[in-house]
Recover the amino acids of this structure.
């Protein structure tokens, strides 16, 4: 994925360069009708996400309903997920309202004594495992 350079500042890549295609467009349609935009999660830090939308990188949080309806932590966004996003208003963060269906997901057993899935990243096309 290459971004265009302009005076030392890299422009965000187009959605297609990040893996957006017709199948994700179809999954996004109901959310687009509600005024949401597609974005890809590029970073996750303890409930605060950095997402790339068409025009920029944004800080985002998860909507309360999405958090409440999640059956497990694995249902919340992870790096690589495509999400339906309401852009920020004023100085607040953008809000993630839905995670689009994943094509793939790397996961493991959650740390500790509980037996639950922990999603690590999603929608990965190629992986290199080095040991």
């Amino acid at each position: 994925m290459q971004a265009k350079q302009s005076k030392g500042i890299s422009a965000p890549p187009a959605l297609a360069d990040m893996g957006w295609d017709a199948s994700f467009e179809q999954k996004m349609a109901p959310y687009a009708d509600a005024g949401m935009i597609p974005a890809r999660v590029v970073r996750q830090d303890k409930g605060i996400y950095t997402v790339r939308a068409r025009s920029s990188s944004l800080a985002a949080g998860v909507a309360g309903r999405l958090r409440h309806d999640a059956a497990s932590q694995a249902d919340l966004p992870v790096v690589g997920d495509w999400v339906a996003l309401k852009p920020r208003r004023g100085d607040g963060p953008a809000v993630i309202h839905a995670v689009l269906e994943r094509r793939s997901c790397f996961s493991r057993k959650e740390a500790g004594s509980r037996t639950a899935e922990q999603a690590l990243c999603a929608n990965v096309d190629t992986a290199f495992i080095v040991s």
Q: What stands out?
A: The mean pLDDT is 85. DSSP finds two helices and nine strands in the chain. Strands lie at 5-6, 9-10, 37-45, 48-52, 57-62, 82-86, 94-99, 105-109, 117-122. The radius of gyration is 15 Å.
